[in-house]
Amino acid sequence: MTATTTTNTTVAVAGGTKGLGLTIAEALAIHGKHNVVILSRKSTPSLDEKLPARLVVVDYDNVQNLTEALEENKVSDVICTINAYGSSLPERNLIRAAENSSTTKRFIPSIFAGFAYPTKLVSRGRQIQNRGARGTGEDILIHTAVYNGMFMDFYGSPLLKSNVGFFPMFVDIANNVAAKPGSGDQAVVLTRVLDIARFVVRILDLAVWPKESYFIGDRVTIHDFVNMAEEARGTKFRITYDSKEELEAGQVTELPCYETTFAVVGKEMTKQLFAQTGLWIIGNELDLRPVSTLNETFPDIKTMTLRRFLELSWKV
Ligand SMILES: NC(=O)c1ccc[n+]([C@@H]2O[C@H](COP(=O)([O-])OP(=O)(O)OC[C@H]3O[C@@H](n4cnc5c(N)ncnc54)[C@H](OP(=O)(O)O)[C@@H]3O)[C@@H](O)[C@H]2O)c1
C-alpha cells in the first residue's frame, strides 16, 4: 500500500503496528494526503514490510530519543494509539517529546473511549493541558480527545476482517447466549474500528480542533443488540440477567466466550472489569450523548450499523 502525498506534513501513528493504530495507518495510506510513519518499540523485518507505512523504532523511556525521532521525521501530528495496559508513562513521554519537538503541532492522545473519560478517570488528554510545559496561547500542543463508543469489532467473527481481536462482553454470539446487565433497556454506542479510523483521518483536515471529538457508529439497547444477534444467527439465545446488586458484588454470568480472557487476564480481574462495565451500562454511561458529533461535521462518512456488522460477521 503506497501513499501518494499531497502535503509535506508527516503524521506519526504511535502504536500503529496493530489494532486501532494499524487501521488508522492503513486509512491514512489510502487517503494519501500525508506522509505517514509508525512509531514502534521494535523492528521485525518480516512484519515491517507488511505495514502500510515506514516504521520508526523509538524508546518510550527516553524523551530525547522521542523528540529526535519526531524532528528527524518532520512529524507535525502525532496520533497516539499506545495501549500499555495500565502504564501511561510511554504516552506521557511522547507528549513531552511532542511539546519539545520544533516540528510537532498537534497530538491525539490514546483515549478512543466508550464513555466520557473526564467524568470517570483523569483524562490523558488533560495531561497535555495541565502540564503546560510548552507555555500558553498559540504555543500549546493542539489536541483533541476522541470518544467513539465501544469497538464494534469485539463482536465480529473471522468472516469480517479486522485488526482488532474479539472481546465480546454480555453477548456471546458464537455460543448463542447473552447475560444482560440490568433490564437490558439501556443503550450503548458502538463504532466499527474502520469507521473510527475514517473519522480520525478527517480530524487532521480540521483547521480548528475541538477539545473533544465525538462520533457515533450506532446506538442500540442491549435488548435490541441481542435481538439483532439472534436474527443474524437465525436462532434464539439463552438469556440471563445480571442485576445491579450482583454486578456491584462483582458477580457476572460466566459466558463461554469469557474463557479465553479468564485464561489470559485471570478470572477475578476479568469479572471485575465486566461487572464494572455492566454497571456503566446500567448507569447509561456507555450511551454517549454529546452536544455535537463529527457525524454532523462529516455527513459523507456513513458508519456501519450494528445490524449490518452482525449480518456480515455471523449470517451464513
Ligand atoms: N472504546 C473501546 O471499546 C476500546 C477498546 C479497546 C481499546 N481502546 C483504546 O484504543 C486505543 C488502542 O487500543 P488497541 O486495542 O488498538 O491497542 P493494542 O493493539 O493492544 O496496542 C497498540 C500498540 O500499543 C503499543 N504498546 C503496547 N504496550 C506498550 C508499551 N508498554 N509501551 C509503548 N507502546 C506499547 C504496541 O506497539 P509496539 O509494540 O509496536 O510498540 C501496540 O501495537 C487505546 O487508547 C485503547 O485504550 C478502546
Description:
Belongs to the NmrA-type oxidoreductase family. Isoflavone reductase subfamily. InterPro entries: NAD(P)-bd_dom_sf, NmrA-like, NmrA/Isoflavone_reductase-like. With 316 residues, the protein is an alpha/beta fold. It folds into 2 domains: 10-143, NAD(P)-binding Rossmann-like Domain (Rossmann fold); 150-190 and 218-289 and 299-314, UDP-galactose 4-epimerase, domain 1 (Alpha-Beta Complex). It contains 13 helices and 14 strands. The strands form 4 sheets. Strands 3-2-1-4-5-6 form a 6-stranded parallel beta sheet, with helices on both faces. The chain has a 3-stranded mixed beta sheet with strand order 8-11-13. β4, α4 and β5 (106-108) form a beta-alpha-beta unit. α1 (19-31) packs across α7, α3 packs across α4 and α10 packs across α11 (267-282). The protein is globular and about 55 Å long. It starts with 9 loop residues before the first strand and ends with a helix. The model is unreliable at 119-126 and 129-138 (pLDDT under 50). NADP nicotinamide-adenine-dinucleotide phosphate is lined by residues 15, 17-21, 40-41, 60, 81-84, 87, 90, 110-114, 148, 150-151, 164.
